[in-house]
Amino acid sequence: MAIVKKNLVTEGLRGRVGNLIFRIRGKTTMVYPYSKRETPLSKEQVNAQVRFAEAVRMARAALTDKAERKKFKKMAKREGKASAYGAAVSYFMLHRD
Questions:
Q1: What is the mean pLDDT of each run of 10 residues along the chain (97 residues)?
Q2: CA geometry: angle 19, 33, 31, nearest 5 deg
Q3: Which end of the chain has fewer CB within 10 Å, C or N?
Q4: What pLDDT, on a 0 to 100 scale, did the predictor assign at position 52?
Q5: Longest CA span, the chain
Q6: What is the distance between the alpha carbons of residues 15 and 29, in angstroms, rounded to a whole number?
């Protein structure tokens, strides 16, 4: 992993460029090598991906409501999460159904 600092060409860049993946975390752009998965996902991994996608969908929907957003902001602060979104995803991962 490489961290890009104060570079006008890569600032704000995200996604795949050739064999490099650019990600933004906070105010920092990070560069990772692209690696293609060689083995298929197991049934458990596929289930985890589906569960996470559902939690993300539920979190996004919940945060459109002001009261829910306020609740998750408080939860984020209490639990040391970076954002209301992170708290909401965590909540829905644990309290599904």
A1: 68 83 82 87 94 93 92 91 91 81
A2: 105
A3: C
A4: 93
A5: 46
A6: 11
**Smallest Cα–Cα separation from 1: which of 25, 80, 9?**
25
The two three-digit tokens of residue 59, written as one number: 């979190």
- CA 30 to chain CA centroid, Å, is 14
pLDDT of residue 75: 92
Name the strand (E) or helix (H) holding 86: helix 84-94
What are the CA-CA distances from residue 62 to residues 38, 65, 67, 91, 95 (Å)? 36, 6, 9, 11, 14
**8 Å CB contact between 48 and 36:** no
Sequence spans of domains, the chain: 2-33, 43-94
